[in-house]
Amino acid sequence: QLPTGLYKKVLVILHDSILPYMNEPTLMIDFLTVAYGIGGAISLLALNGLFILIHEHNLEYPDFYKKLYSLLDPSIYHVKYRARFFHLVDLFLSSSHLPAYLMAAFIKRLSRLALTAPPEALLMVIPFICNLFRRHPACKVLVHRPNGPEDLSEDPYIMEEEEPSKSRALESALWEIRSLQNHYHPDVAKAAAVLNQSLSEIEDDISGLLELSAYELFDKEVKKKAVDVPLEFEQVRGLFGKKNDIFAEHFTLD
């Protein structure tokens, strides 16, 4: 048992400063699997090392995707290691051989959590979800269901279900992204509106969006050039601004 702070320090550097220099990296299997099961930021950081062991050393991890699915909670859009986490999730979900029910569960959970996410996270996760649709066309039923979100008396998706296969995500519709089309931030609303049209076959490059910050968004808005819009208007007269209003005879606006 290690203190939480020490766990984080070790896991941050494990994948590039420790594993490459070990004669038998597989000795770290137990350590990483235990860390992966702890939850929270420690589980997110353990993903890096597990990815190397799975990809390069043939580690078989039962219920890996079930655990990865359980890591999706509201904090993923706010944590310090958000960019690293989504980079790895993108890699783990890149295979076109994953079952449709699993992908639909990930898409639906990410979309539901997006309802409370900040704009900088939404501008990253919406293209991410679009990429998942491109890899798995069978999941497009969530967007193009004949009886759309308006016709659902209730959402059949079970958010609390830990097993993706039992979440009933494929029976649902993606009303969450439809809601984000009315987001207060115009860039988010524009990004969400992409799903109203046919998606191109080429995936969006999200690498530049993973570390997008609120400061960058604010800075971008501040630096926008204001456009002077010519307006034709009738000058207000009187209290309520009507031409023949009795108030105009007795009240004026200086």
Short description:
The chain is mainly alpha-helical and 254 residues long. The protein has helices spanning 4-18, 29-38, 40-57, 64-70, 82-92, 100-114, 119-135, 175-180, 186-192, 214-222, 247-250. Helix 1 (4-18) runs parallel beside helix 3 (40-57), helix 2 packs antiparallel against helix 3 and helix 3 packs parallel to helix 5 (82-92).
Describe the structure.
With 254 residues, the chain is mostly helical. The chain has a domain at 98-224. It is 47% helix and 0% strand. The chain has 11 helices and no strands. The chain has helices at residues 4-18, 29-38, 40-57, 64-70, 82-92, 100-114, 119-135, 175-180, 186-192, 214-222, 247-250. α2 (29-38) packs antiparallel against α3. The longest helix has 18 residues, at 40-57. It is elongated. The termini are far apart. The mean pLDDT is 83.
Element-by-element helix/strand order = HHHHHHHHHHH
Q: Tell me what portion of residues adopts beta-strand conformation.
A: under 5%
The total of helices stands at 11
What does the average pLDDT come to?
83
**Strand tally:** 0
For the record, give the distance between the C-alpha atoms at the N and C termini, rounded to a whole number: 75 Å
Radius of gyration: 25 Å
From the helix content, strand content and strand pairing, which structural class follows? mainly alpha
> Oligomerization state of this entry?
single chain
Q: Helicity level, as a percent range?
A: 40-55%
Shape by Cα distribution: elongated
Uncertain segments of ≥5 residues (pLDDT<50)? none
Question: For the report, how would you describe the main beta sheet?
Answer: none
GO biological process, one term: ribosome biogenesis
Domain CCAAT-binding factor: 43-192
Transmembrane segments: 31-54, 85-107
Keywords: Membrane, Transmembrane, Transmembrane helix
